[in-house]
Amino acid sequence: MKKPKIAFKTLGCRLNQYETDALVSSFVNAGYELVDYDGDADAYVINTCTITNSGDKKSRQELHRTLRKHPDAVIVATGCMATHYQKQLKESNNYTYVVDNDHKTGIFDLLEGHFAGEVMEVEKLDTDRFSYTAANHGFHTRSMIKIQDGCDNFCSYCIVPFVRGRAVSRKPQDILGNIRQVLDFGYKEIVITGVNIGRYQYENTNFEDLIEQILEIEGDFRIRISSIEPEGYGERLFQMFRHPKLMPHIHMCLQSGSDRILKAMNRNYNRSKFTEMVHKLREIVPGINLTTDIIVGFPSEDEEAFNESLTAARDLAFSHIHTFKYSNRSGTRASKMKEQVHGTEMNRRSEEIRKVSEHNKRHYRTSFIGKTERILVEKIENGYASGYGEHYFPIRFPATDKTRVNEFYEVRIADLEVGDDPVAIAHLSRTDEKH
Ligand code: 5AD
Ligand code: SF4
Predict the structure, then answer these.
(1) In terms of pTM, does the model score above 0.90?
(2) Protein residue whose Cα sits closest to atom 4 of ligand 2
């Protein structure tokens, strides 16, 4: 019998993308036909996000749009927004299945059963957060590897601990096995993913131990660390960035430059500790690409506190800042705090940080002019090959007949494009012209 057609939509973070990629692989390996989300499918899986109100809104719009467009299809609402509003979504009776994060990995069994005519119960599905198939059919050139899930930090603004649950770490042997598998599939770049990866702890293995073990795997591939909190590691990790396989980019979340606000956020470091880490990091890995998240408009953030974030953004010279406008998530401690900041003021603050970010980004990328980067080609289009170098900013160079996707090339950066996310314009280095 011909297998059904299936389509996926992902909102939100890298972890969600990883989980979608892994689900896609299970379905494709079992013979399902993967179709474009805007095409006609028998089943649609929407992996939602609830990190901010805007995540909720986008998720809800996507669910409604899919329902309107495909009233007869099987619709599976999953992910953080679906977990957060599970009760309402179930009661609405609009969706064939509402699958919370705990049971997400069971979506393959759920639909297999469904299309075989069985009556399926979400509550009976697998609850192992790490039993996803190794992704071999994702939407990405890089393969994400999930090392942990959940978070115990309870930052006062954050809904994640409520929808992703307590912190759990995956067995090191399983992580190493998963990486070897995706390398066998041909992936050359691995992104270490989770909710709070610096807190990775499996028996005696901590985050630094794990990265060390990963770096021992043989082959021509590279490792990236995704978003991380400034805790659970130190100089030992910084030293590992000197390893040719560990890419010199770290997205280390600051959230605020004000000690008073950091305390109210329940972050367990202050500005000076964070600054010290950055100095140490840059001393050990000069030129590292340091990026961050900053929240503007946290309750009681006044002009003085905001200015501290602004000066931190400048002084620490982050080469990119993901600016979030504080979003009130019901159930969190911050939602009950007085002195909420007005929306228009929040817009102004966010714009100020964005300007610093844009300035720093151009400055950082300009410093690479005349230097060499090793780029992993992701796309060849209109005569240009594009992808990312070690330092994780976009690069393009004129492709030749021999240029291939998913291959490494040494290029020399000559210039930068205009715009707020300027692509570096490069040429193949002499040594690589043989390609
Ligand atoms: N409002 C705004 N930003 C938030 N983040 C998490 N919760 C909120 C919230 N309630 C941001 C943080 C975090 C990123 C993933 O999302 O900056 O690092
Ligand atoms: Fe949320 Fe804080 Fe945990 Fe990050 S560390 S997921 S911001 S609670």
Answers:
(1) yes
(2) 196
